[in-house]
Amino acid sequence: MNTCYICNSNKVVIFKRIGPFTILYCKMCGLKWVDKAMEQTSLNYDKTYFNNNSKIGYNNYLKDELTHRKNAKKILNMVSRIRALSDLKILDIGCAFGYLLDEANKLANCQVKGVELSSYAYEHAKDKFGLDILNSELKNNSFPPKTFDIVFMIGTIEHLAHPKETLSAIKNIIKPNGLLIVTTMDTGGFFPVYAIKPPEHLFYFNHDNLTQLLQQNGFKILKIKPHFSSYYLYDIFYRLGEFTSLKILNRLSRLIEKLFPQLNFNIPTNEMLVVAEASEC
Q: Among 81, 90, 188, 278, who pairs with 206 as Cys (CB 3.0-4.6 Å)?
């Protein structure tokens, strides 16, 4: 019998099957997750992942640098209203091409480090921006205890096969009262439209069960709210086309890209943004 990854309830049912993947659903806390995630995860975060025309990964991550940086600056500015960023030690887990870390350096001269599993993204962040990046998963011995003032996981936690272990490692390396910033899909939010995409996304949270998971690992929630992101207009139509399988939207996306390549908007998404504080013990 399956038990819930977060609340340990045995009221777990099969939500759906997608290819070889079984998606489980907890009737108590609402968590959806891929059964036996570690054994079934085979996604290669290589160049193709960041440059493809499928529902997995990104259409062209590098070309969308402007919007990635706008989103990073918006998150950093939000955090700066809670805690002054100047000269703080910051870690970004799943830092991709390093845009958030580069913006943190520009904004507040922070001491930044990153963790990125993709060798392709790691090489770009290291070579272009000179960032100090660890090309692996975060583990308990990745950094000394109580090193960081702020840890970011932006669009990362849903990819993890073992989020509890990662949160435990974060709790070890973050300073007492340090901040953890998380964005991820919200299955119970105001705009709960999302795709189940194994093996890319392995966990699908809502406000309540993510709060419970963070509290179990020594974090207190300071803020949780819907996350607004900047997207190019053509990318909005592209994503809608992929989600609905309407080819006309994909064609319209290509036309908009030719006519208005830089037109972008800040829109509500299916994500939530969580600010949590590490307990002192």
A: 188
What pLDDT, on a 0 to 100 scale, did the predictor assign at position 157? 97
Are the CB atoms for 26 and 35 separated by under 8 Å?
no
What are the backbone dihedrals phi and psi of residue 94, each rounded to the nearest 5 degrees, phi first? 75, 45
Q: Model confidence over 75-95: pLDDT tens digits? A: 999 999 999 998 899 999 999
DSSP string for 194-238: ----TTT--EE--HHHHHHHHHHTTEEEEEEEEEEEEEEHHHHHH
Task: For residue 131, count CB atoms less than 10 angstroms from its CB and return exposed for 0-12, middle for 13-18, buried for 19 or more.
Answer: buried
Determine the pLDDT at residue 101. Answer: 97
How distant, in Å, are the alpha carbons of 45, 63, 103, 137, 219 from that of 99? 17, 13, 6, 19, 26
Tokens, residue 162: 């073992």
Cα(86)–Cα(80) distance, integer angstroms: 9
Supply the pLDDT for residue 43.
77
Q: Which two tokens stand for residue 152?
A: 């970011």
Q: Name the percent of the chain in helix, strand, coil, to the closest 5.
A: 30, 30, 40
Measured CA distances, 203 to 82, 199, 211 (Å): 28, 10, 14
- As a whole number of angstroms, the distance between CA 24 and CA 10 comes to 11
Contacts of residue 258, defined as CB under 8 A and 6 or more positions apart, other chains included, come to none
| Tokens 């003032």 found at | 149
Torsion of Cα atoms, 229 then 233 then 235 then 239, to 10°: 80
CA distance 267 to 220: 28
